[in-house]
Amino acid sequence: MSLTSHFADNVLLLFKSSLREQQRELARAMDKAHKEIRAIAASGAGDVVDDSRDNASKEAVFASYSQNRTQLRKVELALERISTREFGVCVACESAISLKRLQAIPWANKCLECQEQSEQGRIQ
Q: How confident is the model at residue 92 (pLDDT cuts 50, 70, 90)?
């Protein structure tokens, strides 16, 4: 099912523009995290307190990087759905995803009902 009739091209362009900006921001954040990890690794061995602090810093940077990578993938999939004209269509039931939901979560790939069922383990 295509939402060509549900969303005008200009609405899709707005979503695409917003998602592209999020994509750029996430890529910048991931690049920054790479640099921070390299800087921590290059700082060399210190005493036990320094090593502990560095390990905590690395873990925080890795966690942030992982979250950003996951979010980037969601954004990229939403952009792919725009290009294939499947944006705004629930992957579970093929119904339209509400505009309000997409405005709040533009990378959403399920309607609210299917998302709730998914979170309860009823559907994939």
A: very high
Dihedral (CA of 71, 73, 79, 82) sign? negative
Per-residue pLDDT, 84: 93
Indicate the number of domains in the chain: 1
Task: Please report the sign of the dihedral spanned by the C-alpha atoms of residue 16, residue 18, residue 22, residue 25.
Answer: positive
Q: How confident is the model at residue 4 (pLDDT cuts 50, 70, 90)?
A: very low
101 falls within a domain: no
Residues in the chain: 124
Encode pLDDT of 107-119 as tens digits: 999 999 999 998 9
d(CA 94, CA 88): 9
CA distances from residue 112 to 12, 63, 82, 84, 119 in whole angstroms, order as listed: 20, 28, 19, 22, 11
State residue 89 phi and psi, 5-degree precision: -110, 130
Answer yes or no: is 16 within a domain. yes
Q: Is residue 22 part of a domain?
A: yes
